[in-house]
Amino acid sequence: MRGNIRAKRTGIWLLLLLITIGFVTSVGRAQNNPQIQFDQANSQLESGNYQQALSIYKLIESQQTVSGSLYLNMAISYVQLDSLGKAKYYFLKAQQFPETEGRAVSGLNYVESRFSRQSAVLPKLPWERFFDWLGSVISPTSLLGIAILLLNLGACSYIGGWFFPTVTKPLRVAGISISVISMVIMLSSFYLQYLQNRYSQGVMIHQQADVLEKPNPDATLVSQAYEGYGFTVDHTVSRQKEGWSYVRMSNGLYGWIPNSEIMIL
């Protein structure tokens, strides 16, 4: 009889232990749920606790659970903390998402108007503007897929001329034309991939920094950069010196700047 009672008590304790473990596990999972974390950060943002909100937003970002809303709210938090360089960086990130593009553009315009110093901007060449536009509307992989599809269509059209003698010439002309177009598109996709792998956009996040001729603090000064300045970062050249980035400033000058001074998209 006593053995049965002990067995029942042991079973009850084991059941309670399993329930406790399950509860603790479910709470831990809830705390690590990105949506719950995002809601908590938004509550902190609405309450004016911008640093606390950012700490949670950064945690979500580190988990690779990103969205336009996440970047937009991070930008707003940095605006409230008067860290305009970082605000610009996250507005640019939010601009890449269709659902937040409009609000991000408005935020960028506001931030740009608050910078105490504006950099001279050298207009981009037409081909640079074209590939910037192309990269914003289609990926290199999709472009390559279109090129391959057109190449097959051109080949089929050319071969079709062998089976339809009455329209041999038009089919061959069409096949060659389509094949040439496909090759141009294919080369464009390779070049676009090359540009995206080699270059990125960077934003100056501190009040002032020197852009130097060489990756050395004692090197000749090329120019000075201020918070919010935009750069084109050359990753291929930058790999030559750890801790430094080789950049092209918006005014057309080239030089080196410490990685700690900029944030790269």
Written description of the protein model:
The chain is of the alpha+beta class. It has three domains: 32-114, Tetratricopeptide repeat domain (Serine Threonine Protein Phosphatase 5, Tetratricopeptide repeat), CATH 1.25.40.10; 126-198; 200-264, SH3 Domains (SH3 type barrels), CATH 2.30.30. Helices cover 63% and strands 14% of the residues. The protein has helices at residues 2-31, 34-46, 50-62, 68-80, 84-95, 101-114, 126-137, 140-163, 168-198, 235-238; strands at residues 199-204, 208-212, 221-226, 230-234, 244-249, 254-258, 262-264. The strands form two sheets. The chain has a five-stranded antiparallel beta sheet with strand order 6-5-4-1-7. A two-stranded antiparallel sheet has the order 2-3. A hairpin with an 8-residue loop joins strand 2 (208-212) and strand 3. It is globular, with a radius of gyration of 28 Å. The chain starts with a helix and ends with a strand.
